[in-house]
Amino acid sequence: MYMDFATKQEIYLCSNTGCKHNTPDCPAVFVMDEFPICTSGIFSYGNKIYVLSKGMDNEGAVTQDFYDLDGQLAETEASQAALYEMDTDGTNRHKVYSFDVGLTVEDTVLGNSEGLYFVTKKLSESTAEDSRSVTTSSGKTLLFWDADTKSAKEICKLDFDDGITRKIMGCLDNALVLSGVDYGKELTTDDYTMSDDDWNDMYKNSTEVISTLDLSNQKLSEKYSIDNQTLHSMAVVDNTLYVSYKDTGEVKAVNLENGEEKLLCSFTQNYIMNKLGDILCCQTWDASDDHTFYFVNTKTGEIQNSPLVNKALGWNLEFKAESGSKILVIYDYEYTPLGDDSYDITQYRYALIEKSDLYAGNGIYEPIKMIGKGC
């Protein structure tokens, strides 16, 4: 289903008259065997809709070993990921690319006018001394899929033999912004399975490293590093890294091209949770009754605290999409109390709201007429 912002309705991705939307030939139906639930992602690119069908990326997971009926360690293998393309009305769905068997595809997808970028890797399991298994990756690679030829090619490796596992956190004109934690060594299987206290001690003695990777020459350049003794949060907007520090309340802006650093603003509730265009969406660091957002304008440093929260339970709003001057939010629930401060959410209520009203705390919502549960 999709949400039509013009008519403010949730609509099945199907225009077949009389269709009950419960058979595989319906454009709105995605069969679980072909599109694993919770791990496959849908997105728009150009004038098409794409679905990345993929299995779970459980890199870093620590699990108890399971054995089959013959007493052998049960092995798991990544399902073959694939990219599907369809028209905006859901018709003409077809597979346009199959990733190599055994590769796991990360969730992040980037694009330019020519095609899409994906990160692939090989996952493997090793057993620690306490018989638990640790999932690690190797051969992490940046892949480019050409939208015209429907073919893919390797751009570069994303393993740099320095013991740092990196994730994409943003991009510049022709470069990726990567973040990773430097523990001063390559982690072993037993490191992953150490006690929580020992892990926290090791983490506090590590450093978070922000680098850029120039795609034209594959040059990796370190741009910023932060001691993990200090609680912080980060986001990339345009060519700038924004870093907030809990202890000082500072929000700093670091130009990723020339390294220039400046203070943007200071306030207590500066935990960066999200971003909407050039606005940082911040909340309090500590578990409290304050579920409101503090919106920071990255151009001016102005801070606006919006009192808007979920109407039903007072939880924070959930931002789902942007369209021009409006934001799609989950602003209300229907729910059943289960006791012990837990709830069964039976209906997620969506609405559009003008960005200016959201930031100013004006609850002028344009509700979406829902068909399903909304999640």
From TrEMBL:
InterPro entries: Quino_amine_DH_bsu (IPR011044)
Identification of the protein by name: DUF5050 domain-containing protein
Record organism: Agathobacter rectalis
